[in-house]
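Lab meeting minutes (informal)
Scribe: AK
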Amino acid sequence: MLATFTIIPIGAGESISPIVAKVVKLVDSSNLDYRLTAMGTIVEGEWDEVLTLIKKAHKLVRRHSARVLTSITIDDRKGAKNRLAGKVDSVKSKLKIEVKS
């Protein structure tokens, strides 16, 4: 499954990149395939491992902020593998333009 998640520490100030960096380090250590985007992180893996990772990330941010907003979008397709790159490649193969990804 794929999951896109965004964790926002409320009241942590204008720049949250130091906290985001800690989350990315946690995600990277999970050994799950992921992509960091400007607005969130996309992770690919099995249900339990992905949700466990997001829970750990939420708790990590919660240690730095009294209030945290976490948004999760899940795409769960039976039998699908390597969708993190595969979904993008599928769209690129149908276009006749260079796509930024």
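Next up, CB showed the second protein from the same session:
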Amino acid sequence: MNLRLTSTTMPVAVRPTLSPGQSAGQVAGKGSGGFAGALQSALTSVSEAQNNATQLQREVQLENPKVSLEETMVAIQKAQIGFQATLHVRNRMVQAYTDIMNMQV
């Protein structure tokens, strides 16, 4: 069973962005900072989505005619899905750490 996450199998919220001409295997190269860089990028992306959703909520509550309720609801759902994906990644990392620490040497 292959449990490896590639740029096509991982959730959109935690996917590293590929620059033009860069393959999925090159994501962990020297330019992106490897796993730590990809994780930091994903956390930043989720944080930005949550901040955007919060700002849109505030604008709807202030009855700004330029902000639609539909746009706000979509932003909220995107932020929620991104947060859930991040939470699943964190839980998997904690479980992997726990499994490694419980191994007999």
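CB comment: The chain has a mean pLDDT of 81.
No objections, moving on.
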